[in-house]
Amino acid sequence: MAALLSNLRNTVIAGFVLALVVFIIYYALNGETLGAPFWPFVLRWLHVISGVMWIGLLWYFNFVSTPTTPKIPEELRPALGKYITPAALFWFRWSAMSTIVLGILLAWTRGYLLQAYTLDIYEPSGAAFSDATSVIIGIGMWLGTLMWINVWFVIWPNQQKALNIGSTHPNLSKEAKAAAAKTAGMYSRINTLLSIPMLFCMVGATHLFA
User: Fold this and answer.
1) At what angle do helices 38-60 and 174-207 cross, to 10 degrees?
2) Residue 144: helix, strand or coil by DSSP?
3) Rounded to an integer, what distance in angstroms lies between the CA atom of residue 63 and that of residue 101?
4) How many CB atoms lie within 10 A of CB 5?
5) In 61-155, where does DSSP find H-type helix?
């Protein structure tokens, strides 16, 4: 057990193996073919896993890292910026990418991509704004898309500048680094704000109209 839990890779693999065991139980109890709903379910499951990592790291930055950093002795802070934050940002930005890609694939395979992204203006039945579920999930998708844009085109580039990640900005002045850190922090806080209604929309579209 110690060998399993002391290695993150092995722990994650074991988690997926346990999920496979649960799937085998489901398959045995179902007693039929997997059916059409199964593969969209797999997409949704992976989408949720990615989203949990993305929002979890977003909230880590805003609820833990940012408020705690000023309390850390100044001589210890470089370790945070050199090792912990760049590693967290790697998983943060790529979980954002996988979340939005899987979400779009899910909406496409389920046939509501255009309907949701147009907030039900595009309505196959011809009656625009007649499907409240599409409007709610569409709002959530737009909030998630805006958050993804913030991650990749504002937060990540400014964090690269602020922390000189990958030695991409070695000659920036202290003032420029501080300005970049402030911009990244502000947009990270905006994403925290947007994450709350976004999650309401994602959960609400599934459960409010059931």
Assistant:
1) 140
2) helix
3) 26
4) 10
5) 66-68, 77-79, 85-110, 113-117, 132-150
Q: Where are the domains of the chain?
A: 1-32, 37-207
- At residue 26, the pLDDT reads 85
- Listed in sequence order, the residues at least 6 apart from 76 whose beta carbon sits closer than 8 Å to its beta carbon are none
Q: What is the b/e burial string over 191-208, where b = at least 16 CB atoms within 10 angstroms of the residue's CB?
A: bbebbeebeebbebbeee
The predicted pLDDT at position 195 comes to 98
Question: What 3-state DSSP class applies to 112?
Answer: coil
Determine the angle formed by the axes of helices 174-207 and 156-163, rounding to 10 degrees: 150
164: tokens are 């000189």
pLDDT on residue 77: 86
Rounded to an integer, what distance in angstroms lies between the CA atom of residue 100 and that of residue 105?
9
Mean pLDDT of the chain: 92
CA distances from 20 to 26, 32, 38, 56 (A): 10, 17, 14, 24
The segment with the largest mean pLDDT, out of 44-48, 119-123, 204-208, is: 44-48
| Rounded distance between C-alpha atoms, residue 48 and residue 17, angstroms | 18
What's the token pair of residue 2?
């110690």
**Which among 204, 103, 203 has a CA at the least distance from the CA of 148?**
103
CB 197 within 8 A of CB 171: no
Is-contact 161 176, C-beta < 8 A?
yes
